[in-house]
Amino acid sequence: AVRGKPCWTKLIDGCGCCLLQVVDLRWGIRNITSGDHEASQLFVDEIEACRRISVGPAFTALLGNRYGHRALPRLVPEKQFELLLSKLQKNPKGLKLLNQWFLKDNNADPPMYVLQPITAHFPHYKTQLLQLLRTAATKAEADGDITAEQKQLFYRSVTEIEIDQGLRKEDGEPSALLFVRELPRQRVRDGPKRLAKFMDITADGLLDAEAQELLTGLKSRLYATSQKILNLHCVELSKGSIDPKRKEHAQYLESLCEQFVSQMKARIKREDASCWVLEEVCLHAALSAERCAGMRGREGLLGKLCLAMWESTNAQHSPLVVHGASGMGKTALLCKLAQELRNVLDPRAVVVIRLLSACHPLSPDVDHVLRSVCFQICLACGLTPPPPLIANTHVELVKFFQNLLVKVSQQGSTLLIILDSLDQLSDEHHARRLHWLPADVPPNVHMVVSTDTGSQEFASLRLKLESSGSFFEVESLSADEGKQILDSSLRASQRTLTPEQSNAVLRSFQQTGSPLHLKLILAAAKRWTSFTPLTELCLGTDPQEMMSLLFLSLEEKHGKKLVGAALGYIALAREGLLEAELRDVLSLDDDVIGEVYRYSLPPNPSLIRLPPLLWARLRWDLGENLTESWVDGVAMLRLQNRQLSVAVSARYLAVEQRARRLAVLAEYFLGRWSNRLKPVALPALSLLLSDRKVPPQPLWFAPGLANVRKLQELPYHLLHAGQWEELRQEVIGSAEWLFCKSRVCGVASVIRDLDQCSQYMDCTETRLVRDVLLLIKPNMCLFYTELLGRLLSLAPPFPAVIGRLCSQCEEWLLTCPEPVLVPKCSFLQPPGGALQHTLSAPQGGQSHAAELLVAGLDDGVVITWSLADLQLTHTLLGHTGGSVCLSVCVCVCLYSDNKCCCCYEMLQKIKKNKNGSGVLLDSLSGTDAPVSSLALSGGFIVSASTVASCVRLWSLKYDTRHKPKAHIPAVSRGKIKLLCAGSPSDRLAVPAEVCCLELAQHKRLLLCGLKTGTVLIYPLAMPQETLCIPPPESLPKVLCLAVGPQERRLAVAYEDAVCLFEITSRDSFPAVEGPLQKFTPSLLHAQVSSMALMADRRLVYGTGCGNVELHDFRSSSSSSLEPHCSKVTCVTAGNWGNHVLVGSEDAVQRLWALNPLALDHTMEYKGFVFEGVLSAAFSESDQFVFTGSQDRTVKVWDVASGNLLYVQYVYAPVMKMVTYRNGFVALSQQGFVIKEVFRCPEHVSLDYNPLRNVRAQYRVTSREKDQPGTETSMSNLQDYNPAQFNLGFMLKTKPSTSCHIL
């Protein structure tokens, strides 16, 4: 085999997404001759399997100067064998010998003579039998009875047979590579003994002239027919061998490897990834055709089903339910129904079939099933498929599925949906309660489902469907039906049975009447010969006994440990195993290796693996009990049915065996023994360290190419093997793992893994990581940033996993080759707090009853969730108008600040309070829409909004350590809340409603403008000592405040004037003097909405109608800047007084240079919705400017070029920003404090696109610095998932009576 050589590494590196497997059935076997003579056929079958699954060369022939082993044919056709016997009439001993070794099998069709196992007679048979057959064949050819090709069958070597099979042409060129080596000269001293490794030698030590002649003929034929794939090498032996130390031999080996690698790479077909829907449809269609191929009988039941569908075609009706005991043939019946439907209803009918039991041992989740069904129906009927937001949301997907059936019905198309084995669904979203299954199906649409009679799903169907006429039971097969199936299956396999054997089969089958029982009997019967004694027939009384007999026969032939390990590993694998994976895992199993090498040493003690031929023999004998399923473009080995999986688990997977084999699987997918020596104890050797030659298991094979098999299997095996510490290190506590699997397999698959971990592990950190993934589920584009922004506050109390994740995220962000914002505090909704779950649902009201949450939707649909496990339980249709649902709860109070709902003590405790006002216990923060409905149930609060598409569930018994610290909760009317390091530190009373706030950071002054026109100034060192700027005589409202860069001056904008004050100090106490100057804005303009004061007493301000003015207090002059089309919402000056940014409610923001005054850049940003700029801050060096917008993003712009550098979604509009080092500190509308640092590498790739994760476009128009004119750069529209936006939430800012300081 090539594995382990340098060329193998080069080949792997250059083949991208191709999975390379080496199959060399001769490796590890000293003598390929087996007792049952099946080796030659196994080689041919393995070549055919490689041709079937390969996308590149499936066969590589290395032909030297040795013709190879020439084996006796195992099967000889009856006529040909009897013809050969007739040519040996003068040799009675030869005739007796042939008749002794070859027995006629009349069960074959046509009959064949079968070579008997060597254990049946004496072992020294080969030479005599071969000579007899060749003599007879030569005479037959001379007499003209057979052709030269037929005679050659008794002379050909196994090597020539394999080469002919591998080079067989089907379409175009053969999928193979051919390398031929010639020895040009042979020295006299290089006698036969020295050349024994390279040439055929007879028993007496001489060169085999006949073999050399046959080899010469083979090479001549290859030279003539395979020139395009032939690679010829000539090399002279050195002392009868190849010595890599010799220069010419080293060059030969290097040339051979280079040719192999280059030609393999050139011939591997780079196929585009196929559509997953098409792949799944083809998979189930192929399985359906296979299952109904041998289907016989059941005509009465099929007729009833077809009649029921035909009668209900034009009316609304219930789904049809096929039920019965396990193994009664429900799947085959439904497959046959799908095949016959078009003859009954409509030749153009669309048939959608899903065999859910085909995915065992993995239970399919209902979302995947519905998603694939919806996509197939839409593609077949020309309808619009579900968008990502709907396809990935359970409630929306169920609703889409049911509406889709109505659309197909209205279209007039005939549709049949078959869902087999509903009892195999996973219970995610309470799928087994079948709330997603419509109770009524519209006209022209038919739905047939199946389940076991004793299952929970059958009970749910009985409750859901009122009509008993919708249920059809599959009963036992009759004897006649069993006979039909027996004859049909044998005829398809070109086999028959003797009357005695046939009667024995039918007697055993009639004890159960089970199709599964008959199928297992047939699998064994197809291997019986006509001379197999009745006493050796393995017939069990039921399927379980048949499986036990199968296992017993396999153990006797192949060894109990090998059989148990192979079947056990296949049964334990989460999604099945690749054949290469199974061979690797068996090679790591010390028990299997010990059994294989019990009586002989491995060929190379430093390299120990399971000889591939041993597995090939076992697979041959497993036959139909092992199936191949194509998953993600690779062929997975799985056991044929559930019952076989159960039997394997019971026999080979006891507690100790299961744990040990799970540990081996976990080690394999961890890559623990790749390029490492593993100890093994063999009977003939002491403790030995050997290389098992298993491949490495990196998380990424190449950039963008993930190790999907590792992602699928490793968490499951680590968990169930009890290796929980490694599970925490490799999976739960690995940010790269979480990102990789979320990106490749979807966030839902990671959540399922963590849910399963939580069932076995009492680990708070696991639950916290799981909750984080629930929170970031709609948006995966900024994974590391979101993970850090949600978990940073939890790192100190949970250093082992959470702290490790935060460190990894920060390290990734700091080494990212692209511009990025690095969070320095938790500013997104963290896990583990009061918010337990966000239940996606369309808009509507909500209520609760006992442990159920009931939500009424605007379109009349009523849906229910279980509060016990947060799973949707029912979707109730039938209402024609919107559902209005009110819930009265005396212990719940709602603030109107769009952010908080607060729970007070119960009524009895409120009565005890002297003033009856109640005691505030907690503030639950994190909603992003006005709360319009609340309900209290036990220890939970449920909140909903008429403008939000979700319902939130809050726990009143959460761990307060998980509550976000950097968050501003609601306060009482007429008070200001001070915060220190993100935590409340004091509350200050104010006499009127607060209109605006400003902070002088260096002088530590808080300035507060009131509705009455008063400006209050609070020294933060002495917050109770308040300064006051009295209002003007007209008592105008304070519109906004602006503090100059050196904090020496203050500008106050009133409704009718703008005044300039000076901030000074007297006796180390702050003071304010003025107004020093005053001007009245133009009456033609709206009121001042935002302004910025420069160090040189220039003031830039914007108005509500979009005008922008520059007023110079020194000269009392004003000049107009380019206006905006809507209200100016943000005017921010740079830290060095050189620039000012003006933003408005429209999509335009302008960056002005102040010295001299000039418009540097006009930045236009068009997003999905809500484009307006709310706040901005320059970096300390004025190199970058950060903006917070209504689209809930923070953007980073380059001041010099005006280009957009980075966009980050923060889930809430950013209301205020201030400079923090090379970043900013900001406050979101939800009350979270955002602190981030911007990191921009010196060299950014030319391919970098800041909008690759955002569905938006931007345009920058800049003036050229040296000459008049403008230059424009523009982005392209990028794909973006609109799920991150809440389309129902339109920002409606109301005056607030509270103000906050950071």
TrEMBL record:
Database matches in SUPFAM superfamilies: P-loop containing nucleoside triphosphate hydrolases, Quinoprotein alcohol dehydrogenase-like
Alphabetically ordered keywords of this record: Repeat, WD repeat
Residues covered by the NACHT domain: 319-488
Domain of life per record: Eukaryota
InterPro entries for this protein: NACHT_NTPase, NWD1, NWD1/2-like_WH, P-loop_NTPase, Quinoprotein_ADH-like_sf, WD40/YVTN_repeat-like_dom_sf, WD40_repeat_CS, WD40_rpt
NWD1/2-like winged helix-turn-helix domain location: 552-657
First and last residues of every WD repeat: 1173-1207
Name of this protein: NACHT and WD repeat domain containing 1
Gene source species: Myripristis murdjan (pinecone soldierfish)
